[in-house]
Fold this protein.
Amino acid sequence: MAKIIDLNCDMGESYGRWTLGADEEIMPNITSANVACGFHGGDPHVMRKTVALALRYNVAVGSHPSLPDLMGFGRRVMDVTPQELKDYLCYQTGALREYLRAAGSDLQHTKPHGILYSMIEKDEPLATAVGEAARESGRDLILMALASGSYDRLARKMGVRVASEGFADRAYNVDLTLVSRKLPNSLIIDPERAAAQAVKMAMEGKVRTIDGVEVDISVQTICCHGDTPGAQRIVKAVREGLERAGCQVKPLRDWLPKA
């Protein structure tokens, strides 16, 4: 049976007169788009345009909600309660879902952005709040979670439909956490290296850590960050590498089992 994988990317992170990413070039090569919802990037006009661009290429759309940190691009730790976090997620995902409804489509998934993605690995009450927010948004909604992480396991126990996520353009520690962006070599900006890492994860179920150790990993979706330098070339190389390796690249909605 052929291996199937989803390829996702963070999109729609421009706002106002500020532009980030090469969305027009990236969108044709991905199968799922994580669309910024205004708290770390994106604005109402960019959200509408990004949804339209995704639907043009039959790319599934998910929300990419963040802590309310536009100036820090959602990458600064904030002191929030679980209820506050649930409200932030509901607000952002609801806004994006309305754009999809207006366009005759629906939301496939949600994926916390930036530092929030890391915070929920260490803070069980916040992780539970994210799982509850996803569950309240609909049983078929897919939640992307760090593969082999504590949050992935918690969400599955909660009965949430989870897609375990790997990263083509980030270096890994031996415990399968991502190497901090503050450290050297945390980003993989060479397209061929990123493609090789994606293929290894998808086809062999393994990843080589920053220390050179091979670790087992199980992924259903692979991410390339839209703000990584040269992201459009990385995404293209990853897509082509996966397909050359015999992998079917399809959106999660087409094949991921229900919770």
About this structure: Residues 134 and 141 are 7 Å apart (CA to CA). Strands lie at 4-11, 32-36, 60-64, 109-110, 142-146, 161-167, 206-208, 214-216, 221-224, 248-249. Helices lie at 23-26, 44-56, 82-102, 114-122, 124-136, 150-157, 191-204, 231-244.
